[in-house]
Structures are given as structure tokens and as C-alpha cells.
Amino acid sequence: MVDIRPFRALSYTSKAGNPADLITQPYDKIDSAQQKAYYTLSPYNFCRLILPLEENKYEVAHQRVNQWLKDGVLTKEEQPAVFVSRQEFCLCGKQYSRTGIIAALRLYAYGESMVYPHEATYKAPKADRLNMLRNVQKDLEPVFLMYQDPQAQTIHFMDDATKTEPMTQVTDALGVKHTIWKVSDPEKIQYIQDIFEAKKMVINDGHHRYESAISYRDEMRAKGDWTDEEAFNFYMCYMVPVQEEGLVVLPTHRLLKNYKLTPEVLDGFGCFFGIQEIQPTAEAIEAFLCSRQGEHAFCVYDGTKACGLTLKHDSSVYEFIEAYVSKETKVFDVVILRDIVFKQVLKTGQLNLDDTILYERWTREALVRVDRGEASIAFLVNPIPAKTVAEIAVQHELLPEKSTDFYPKLVSGLVLMDISIGEKL
User: Is residue 423 part of a domain?
Assistant: First the structure.
């Protein structure tokens, strides 16, 4: 049974200034240049909590959030509530809207078949977020999940909420409009709690945060007396139905360091793929990928040339894939890329985030990063639909790290949740 709870949210007051100067992209989407830019926007910019520039960043974040509460820059709601959160955005000339519910979700181990991951994680980000939880004792950023709602029960609930006056509305630097409505009526909250009891939740974004929260919960439980109502048993989550039309997934392109398109590498690709040289432009690459969705197709770019790769549909290739592709998933593009292209042809071995592999959502930016020398070769991929991600996750199957990019990201700094000792839900 999935247990969601209302909570007394922490949020900025008018004393903090213009909300547009306070919000940020999620901590793992902030590079060093953005970090410095956020610092210049406001002394209360949320980057100063989630990703402080100072060396002792965890202690600084702890002191800062408490000082902001003391100074009235942040305030805590008197009444527990759940929240409806909507993002309105434009992508490739088309307007989208995505709406979900923010509530405290009880933490479940993956083996309990309540909450399911869809991709593998890295150790370093989990250690970082765990240290932040230990020091700050606040859920600073939500975990983003999806669930099935074929009868549109939660969709109707959210539609009703959005007819009321919003609690917050702000447009971020990417042009995405974020609006939040508060629902504090106990009967309405009970209604939505009853609906969620039977749901299966799939993590879209925030695997590292979720797994860190479970580790923190277990640490807190090991310290002594606790009850199921302690706030550290929960995590603030943003939950969106799979049926929501604005649940957009972008591709996550892979950029490797220290590899080139040598004749030997192309010969290796030729064992598994049909190879077509294409114009080394973002437009040509995107056109190639779009025309071959569902065909296990990739593009590769090394700064001077680009090739389209389409998996050969013959028995010898499929026999090889059956033998060598990871059994943890079905035959998905990102798995073929990792296990055939990287491991078998390029012989990359273990790839480490930032050291040997980088990730990029936009085709044009991926090419630019190769041109700048940040990486030597880029592999461009098609996205995996949200519906497919949801289906494989509940079968306990995992995709490789950074296989999906749900767009847009939730901005950080609109709502926080207190999980301090003594806080109960």
C-alpha cells in the first residue's frame, strides 16, 4: 500500500525578493558557471543551499537554511497540505503542459514492489546527497515519479485544484512557467490518499536522492526510538500520471573521451550495423534518428565527420546480442550502445561519470562539446518513451545510467520539506 501524506511546507517569503532570482535548476544540472551566476542573482538564491560554493558546503547549507528561517526569508506553513504543480513549456515549436502532485511519499525499498527505479545509479552522487540530508535535515528537492491513472482520477483531482488561486507562479530562465496550488482540505487529501494506495510508483528523476533518503532513514532508525510517523520515513515527491500528455522524455546522448572514428572502429561497427555517412550537422543527425525510430539506430560524430548506424536485421547479429547484451533489460538502444558499441567494439571497459563519459540532452550542444575538445566522440540516440520506461521498471528491469531525460526539470526552491528530528507527518 502506497502511503502519501500532506506536509507543512517550507517556502520563500516576499522578504527573499523576486522568485525568479531565487529558483534554480536541480543541483545535478548546475555547472560551475551557472553556480557562480546563481550566486550573483541573490543572497538568497537556492543554489546557496543545494550546491554551495563554499568548501564546507554541507555545514554551510545547514547554517544557512536555519538562518533564513530565523530571519523570515523562509517560512513554514501552519497547515499540512499536498500541492499541485504544473509546468508549461515550449519544445520544438510545440506547447506542452505537465501537471503532478507534490506530497510526502513513504520510503519503500525497491524490493517491496511499491517504488521502482528505471536506471542504475552512481555511488558519488548518492554519498553527496546523503551528507546533505544528514546536515540540513530538509528535503531540498523533490524526487520525480510517475504512475498509471487510466481512469483519470488524479487528473480530475488536479484539474479541480488548478481552478483555485495559485500559491506560487514563476517563469524560469529556460522559459518554463511553474505554477503551484495548495490543497489543505482534509477530505480532498483523504480522497487522493485513498487513490494512491494501489499505485505502483516509478522513479523518473532523483534516483540518487531517493536512495540517499532510504540510507538516511535507516541511519535514523538505528539511533533508537522512532515511529512510522517520523518525517524521515518519507520523502517529498512530485508524482505525474503516465497518461499526462506533457510527460516528455528527451534523449541522453553519450560523449566519450579519447576515442576516434578510425578505419578499425568503423570496421567493428560494420559487423553489427549498416553504416551511412551523413552531414556532420545537428539537423542531419536529428533527421536520421527521427526517420529510424524503433530500428536501433545511432549517430556518431568525432568533430570532422558523422555516420548513421542502423542495426543489421540478420540472425548472426541477433544471436550475438542475445548472448552478450545485458540480461537486466530488453534490447533497448542504450543497452545495445553500451554492451555492443562501447564494450565489444570500442573496448571501453568501465566508464566513469565525468572522467570518461559525459551526457548531453541537446544534439547541437553535444556536437559543440566535441568541437571544444571536452570529449572526442559523441553518440547520439533516440529517446525512450515514458510509457516504455514505466512498463520495464515494474518488471524489475534496469536501464543503464542516464538513459532518460524527463523534460523540463522541476525547478528547485519552490517547496521544501522538513525532516528534522521530532517532525511528524
Answer: no
Each residue's pLDDT tens digit, 175-213? 999 999 999 999 999 999 999 999 999 999 999 999 999
pLDDT single digits (tens) 376-400: 999 999 999 999 899 989 988 888 8
Rounded CA-CA distance 304/269 in Å is 18
Q: Which of 340, 271, 280, 341 is nearest to 306 (CA)?
A: 280
Hey, how many other C-beta atoms are within 10 angstroms of the C-beta on 321?
Answer: 17
Task: Please check the confidence at residue 330 and state whether its pLDDT lies above 70.
Answer: no
Same structural domain for residues 55 and 121? yes
User: In sequence order, what are the residues at sequence separation of 6 or more whose Cβ sits closer than 8 angstroms to the Cβ of residue 183?
Assistant: 81, 82, 83, 84, 161, 189, 192
Same domain, yes or no, for 293 and 187?
no
For residue 328, the model assigns a pLDDT of 63
- Dihedral pair phi/psi, residue 301, rounded to 5°: -140, 135
Give SS3 for 315: helix
Judge if 240 and 304 occupy the same domain.
no
Q: Let me know whether 296 and 174 are in one domain.
A: no
- Torsion angle (degrees, nearest 10) of CA 390, 391, 394, 398: -80
Considering the domain architecture, whether residues 38 and 174 belong to the same structural domain is answered as yes
Q: Smallest Cα–Cα separation from 341: which of 362, 361, 357?
A: 357
SS3 113: coil
Highest mean pLDDT among 328-332, 368-372, 393-397: 368-372
Give the number of other Cβ atoms within 10 Å of residue 245's Cβ.
9
Q: Is 127 within a domain?
A: yes
Q: Does residue 230 share a domain with residue 326?
A: no
Give the neighbor-by-neighbor strand order of the sheet with 377-380: 273-278, 306-311, 297-301, 377-380, 253-256, 357-360
Co-location of 129 and 239 in the same domain: yes
Q: Is the predicted pLDDT of residue 232 greater than 90, yes or no?
A: yes
Q: Is the pLDDT of residue 322 over 80?
A: no
* Within-domain flag for 393: no
* 272 plus 214 within the same structural domain: no
- What span, in angstroms and rounded, lies between the C-alpha atoms of 326 and 299? 22
Domain boundaries, position 287: 252-382
Q: Which of 361, 323, 357, 358 is nearest to 340 (CA)?
A: 323
Half-sphere exposure at residue 92, Cβ-oriented, CA atoms within 13 angstroms: 7
Burial (CB < 10 A; 0-12, 13-18, 19+), residue 413, is: buried
Q: What number of CA atoms fall less than 13 Å from residue 395's CA on the CB side?
A: 12
On whether residue 387 sits in a domain, the answer given is no
Q: Is 407 helix (H, G, I), strand (E, B) or coil?
A: strand
